[in-house]
C-alpha cells in the first residue's frame, strides 16, 4: 500500500518578516535601477535636467561662500586709520596710542611708524625710482584703530572717527572697513536670493520627476491594472515608482556635485593667477561635506515627493467613484 506523503506548508514567523520586507525592498531597488539602465538616453536626459537645476544654485552658493571667506581675511584690517600730523614724532605717537588705547570704544591700537610705513610702501614695488629721489621720509605716523564689537557698526564708527579727528595730533582719518560691512550685507542679500532660487529650482525638479514618473505609469498601465486585479496593495504598486524617483534624485544630485566640482577645478588656475597679481594666495573651496549632504539628501527627497504625488494621483483616479 503506497504511503501518503504529507506536504507541510511553511508559514513565515514574525522573525522572518523583517527579512522578507527587506528582501522585497532590495529587489525593488535593483529592479528599478536596472529598468533605468535599460533606457540610457531618456534616463540621461532626465538626470541632466535635474543636475543642471541643482547645480545652478549650488554654484552660486559656492561663489558666495568663497567671497565670504575672502572677506573674512579682509576683516582683519583696521576699522579706522588715523593719520597724525607730519611734525608728530614716534615718541609723541606712542603717547597718543597709549591715550587712545584707554578709550572704552577701542579694543586695540597699532602704531605704524614713518619708517615702517616707508618700508611697506617699498615692498609694494613699482615705485623704486621715485622713492630713490626722496631726500626725506614724507609719510606720516599712522595709528590703526580696532574698535570693539559693540562699536563696529557704521554709525558708531562714524562717531568714533569724528572723535578721533578732534585730537590735536590728528591730521585726517580713513574708515577702512565700512565698505567691507556693506560688501558683507550684499553677500547676505545674494545668499537669500540663492536660497529663493534654490527653492524655485527645487520645485522645478519635483515637477520634472513627477512628470517622468507619470509617463512611466502610463507606459505600465496594463501591468498596474493586472496587479490591482490580483489584489496588490497600493503600497506594493507604489514602491517601484518611489524608488525610481529616488534614483532620479540621487543620480541628479551626484551629477550636480560633479558639475560644481569640475567648475571649481577649472576656475582655480585663473583665480590663483589673479591672486598672484595682488601678491596673495587664494584657494577656491568647493562643496563641503555638509553642502554635499544637503544636495544629495534634498535631491532624493524631491524625487520621492514627485513620484509619490504622481503615483497617488493615478491610484486615486483609478479607484471607483
Automatic annotation (TrEMBL):
Transmembrane segments: 43-63, 185-209, 246-267, 287-311
One term under GO cellular component: plasma membrane
Membrane topology classification: Multi-pass membrane protein
Compartments, as annotated in UniProt: Cell inner membrane
InterPro entries linked: ABC3_permease_C (IPR003838), FtsX (IPR004513), FtsX_ECD (IPR040690), FtsX_proteobact-type (IPR047590)
Domain of life, per lineage: Bacteria
Domain FtsX extracellular: 79-156
Primary location recorded for the protein, binned into one broad class: membrane
Annotated ABC3 transporter permease C-terminal domain residues: 197-313
Biological processes per GO annotation: cell division
Keywords attached to this entry: Cell cycle, Cell division, Cell inner membrane, Cell membrane, Membrane, Transmembrane, Transmembrane helix
Quaternary structure and interacting proteins, as annotated: Forms a membrane-associated complex with FtsE.
Protein purpose: Part of the ABC transporter FtsEX involved in cellular division.
Family the UniProt entry places it in: Belongs to the ABC-4 integral membrane protein family. FtsX subfamily.
Database matches in NCBIfam families: FtsX_Gneg
Descriptive protein name: Cell division protein FtsX
Biological source species: Imhoffiella purpurea
Amino acid at each position: 500500500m503506497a504511503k501518503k506523503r504529507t506536504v507541510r506548508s511553511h508559514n513565515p514567523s514574525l522573525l522572518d518578516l523583517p527579512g522578507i520586507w527587506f528582501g522585497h525592498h532590495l529587489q525593488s531597488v535593483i529592479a528599478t535601477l536596472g529598468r533605468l539602465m535599460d533606457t540610457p538616453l531618456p534616463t540621461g536626459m532626465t538626470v541632466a535636467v535635474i543636475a543642471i537645476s541643482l547645480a545652478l544654485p549650488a554654484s552660486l552658493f559656492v561663489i558666495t561662500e568663497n567671497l565670504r571667506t575672502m572677506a573674512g581675511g579682509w576683516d582683519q584690517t583696521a576699522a579706522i586709520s588715523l593719520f597724525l600730523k607730519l611734525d608728530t614724532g614716534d615718541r609723541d605717537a606712542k603717547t597718543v596710542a597709549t591715550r587712545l588705547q584707554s578709550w572704552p570704544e577701542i579694543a586695540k591700537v597699532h602704531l605704524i611708524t614713518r619708517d615702517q610705513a616707508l618700508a611697506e610702501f617699498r615692498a609694494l614695488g613699482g615705485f623704486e625710482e621715485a622713492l630713490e629721489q626722496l631726500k626725506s621720509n614724507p609719510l606720516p605716523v599712522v595709528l590703526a584703530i580696532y574698535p570693539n564689537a559693540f562699536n563696529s557698526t557704521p554709525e558708531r564708527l562714524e562717531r568714533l572717527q569724528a572723535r578721533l579727528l578732534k585730537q590735536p595730533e590728528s591730521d585726517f582719518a580713513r574708515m577702512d572697513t565700512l565698505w567691507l560691512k556693506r560688501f558683507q550685507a550684499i553677500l547676505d542679500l545674494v545668499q537669500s536670493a540663492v536660497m529663493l532660487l534654490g527653492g524655485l529650482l527645487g520645485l522645478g525638479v519635483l515637477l520634472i520627476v513627477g512628470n517622468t514618473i507619470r509617463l512611466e505609469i502610463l507606459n505600465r498601465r496594463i501591468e498596474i491594472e493586472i496587479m490591482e486585479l490580483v489584489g496588490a496593495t497600493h503600497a506594493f504598486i507604489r514602491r517601484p515608482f518611489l524608488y525610481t524617483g529616488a534614483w532620479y534624485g540621487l543620480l541628479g544630485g551626484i551629477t550636480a556635485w560633479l558639475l560644481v566640482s569640475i567648475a571649481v577645478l577649472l576656475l582655480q588656475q585663473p583665480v590663483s593667477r589673479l591672486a598672484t597679481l595682488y601678491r596673495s594666495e587664494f584657494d577656491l573651496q568647493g562643496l563641503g561635506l555638509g553642502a554635499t549632504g544637503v544636495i544629495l539628501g534634498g535631491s532624493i527627497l524631491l524625487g520621492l515627493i514627485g513620484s509619490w504625488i504622481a503615483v497617488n494621483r493615478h491610484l486615486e483616479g483609478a479607484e471607483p467613484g
